[in-house]
């Protein structure tokens, strides 16, 4: 899921001390901006800065300069260009977001290694004043979703810093699980084993198709949200084709309990199969953003799940949720090491490769799909992931998808109706524009997220999972009702 933090620097605002939020008051003539920590862990936190233009005249460019105390450093950012000098970090436009119209705003985010909050800041050369409430001790961890590319929720309990892996994975000895016969009339019965044909997803007959469904939240955080009744509702009430199984790697996920999480994933694969839905196994890496950090874990995990599920026709593999802060060449190298592990066990399964900039095809880091087109992954039967959050990612992202779809097989494995923080108001107009585009291009998608966390991107209202009520609209949020209405329309199989 996504990135998360908000920096609000409010113009001419005197602010009281808050333990987890640092506020800066700016001169009346300056742009407004703000900072709030909404996602943190023992060894760091995420932040998002929103630069606003309250005037009636446009701003042609902007620059935010932040100083952190010793022991804390920014190790990655999105929707901005980062330059560092000692403890000073300068953020400038990514290119497409330099101009801010009167009354408009733009946002960028970053991840800090260390717990120190900013000690000073400048916006377009104007010194910030009134800095208060900047704790340097570790804050309490709060649940949240990902940063600017796509939000991935944060853990509800503190987790230790991730540990790199060095051991070589052992060959899988798992016995394939018997395949169930899908019920007549279900997406799985209608389409069978999927494959990539050209730039499209195709069924067993070679027909171009589109799968529509939802993504879980972290399956280790919200286990009560995924009983049989929930998948029954998705299959029969929503008419969903696809269920994405989001298995976090860090943040208390696979790294902490590899056997337990692997079992949970396999159980959900079986539950989706029994209801005639496709299961998208998501290796949900987010922080660190370099998937190579988890290369050994990825090989171990995918060797096991691919061997166990090789006989099933409903499994799709997503090998890296949202790579960020690394080059496309690094992501490609990771993919070309993990894909053979899957192919050795399941030669027919489709593999989806995450893309640069939180799976934004590079757009959120100032690049584009051209780097993938000119240097594709050396493997067959693969697709490339794209993620968006409708309130944050609009026309320039849609234009990139339209262009990329002519050359690359795309799969929107995660999208939200709200901002890239995973929270905020539903942007109905932008969401519908996105879904219309995906329908037109036959791009499959999974909405984030089928969970009941108290945030804008959740499909279910808080408490819905514990109540066991999943069918109909009574348990749905505004976002859930919108997505259900779009998925329930007839499939074109």
UniProtKB/TrEMBL annotation:
Keyword Secreted assigned: no
UniProt region (Disordered), positions on chain: 134-186
Transmembrane segments: none
EC code: 3.2.1.4
Coiled coil: none
InterPro entries reported for this sequence: CBD2, CBM2/CBM3_carb-bd_dom_sf, CBM2_carb-bd_dom_sf, CBM2_CS, GH, Glyco_hydro_5, Glyco_hydro_5_CS
Classification via PROSITE patterns: CBM2, CBM2_A, GLYCOSYL_HYDROL_F5
GO biological process, one term: cellulose catabolic process
Catalytic activity: Endohydrolysis of (1->4)-beta-D-glucosidic linkages in cellulose, lichenin and cereal beta-D-glucans
Gene Ontology MF annotations: cellulase activity; polysaccharide binding
CBM2 domain sequence ranges: 24-131
Similarity annotation: Belongs to the glycosyl hydrolase 5 (cellulase A) family.
Record-given protein name: Endoglucanase
Organism whose genome encodes this protein: Actinoplanes teichomyceticus
């Amino acid at each position: 899921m996504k990135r998360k933090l908000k920096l609000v620097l409010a113009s001419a605002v005197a602010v009281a001390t808050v333990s987890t939020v640092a506020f800066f008051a700016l001169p009346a003539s300056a742009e407004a901006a703000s900072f709030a920590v909404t996602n943190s862990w023992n060894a760091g936190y995420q932040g998002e800065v929103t630069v606003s233009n309250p005037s009636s005249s446009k701003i042609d460019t902007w620059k935010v300069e932040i100083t952190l105390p010793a022991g804390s450093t920014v190790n990655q950012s999105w929707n901005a260009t980062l330059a560092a000098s000692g403890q000073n970090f300068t953020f400038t436009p990514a290119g497409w977001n330099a101009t801010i119209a009167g009354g408009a705003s733009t946002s960028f985010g970053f991840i800090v290694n260390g717990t120190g909050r900013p000690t000073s800041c400048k916006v377009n050369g104007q010194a910030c004043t009134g800095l208060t409430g900047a704790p340097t001790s570790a804050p309490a961890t709060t649940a949240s979703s990902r940063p600017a590319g796509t939000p991935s929720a944060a853990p509800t309990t503190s987790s230790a810093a991730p540990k790199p892996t060095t051991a070589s994975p052992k060959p899988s000895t798992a016995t394939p699980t018997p395949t169930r016969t899908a019920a007549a009339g279900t997406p799985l019965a209608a389409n069978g084993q999927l494959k990539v044909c050209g730039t499209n997803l195709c069924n067993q007959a070679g027909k171009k198709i589109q799968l529509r469904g939802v993504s879980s939240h972290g399956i280790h955080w919200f286990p009560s949200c995924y009983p049989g009744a929930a998948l029954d509702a998705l299959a029969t009430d929503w008419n969903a084709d696809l269920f994405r199984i989001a298995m976090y790697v860090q943040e208390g996920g696979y790294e902490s309990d590899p056997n337990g999480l692997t079992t949970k994933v396999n159980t959900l694969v079986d539950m989706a199969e029994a209801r005639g839905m496709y299961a998208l196994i998501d290796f949900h890496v987010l922080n660190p953003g370099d998937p190579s950090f988890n290369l050994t874990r990825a090989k171990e995990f995918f060797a096991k799940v691919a061997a166990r599920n090789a006989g099933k026709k409903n499994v799709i593999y997503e090998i890296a949720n949202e790579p960020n802060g690394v080059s496309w060449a690094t992501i490609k190298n990771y993919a070309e090491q993990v894909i053979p592990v899957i192919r050795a066990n399941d030669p027919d399964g489709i593999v989806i490769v995450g893309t640069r900039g939180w799976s934004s095809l590079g757009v959120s880091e100032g690049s584009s799909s051209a780097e993938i087109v000119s240097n594709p992954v050396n493997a067959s039967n693969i697709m490339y992931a794209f993620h968006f959050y409708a309130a944050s990612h609009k026309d320039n992202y849609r234009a990139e998808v339209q262009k990329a779809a002519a050359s690359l097989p795309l799969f929107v494995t995660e999208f939200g109706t709200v901002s890239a923080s995973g929270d905020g108001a539903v942007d109905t107009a932008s969401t519908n524009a996105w879904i219309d585009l995906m329908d037109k291009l036959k791009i499959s998608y999974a909405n984030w997220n089928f969970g009941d966390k108290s945030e804008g991107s959740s499909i279910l209202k808080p408490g819905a999972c514990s109540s066991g009520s999943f069918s109909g609209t009574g348990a749905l949020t505004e976002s859930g009702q919108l997505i259900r209405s779009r998925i329930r329309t007839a499939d074109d199989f």
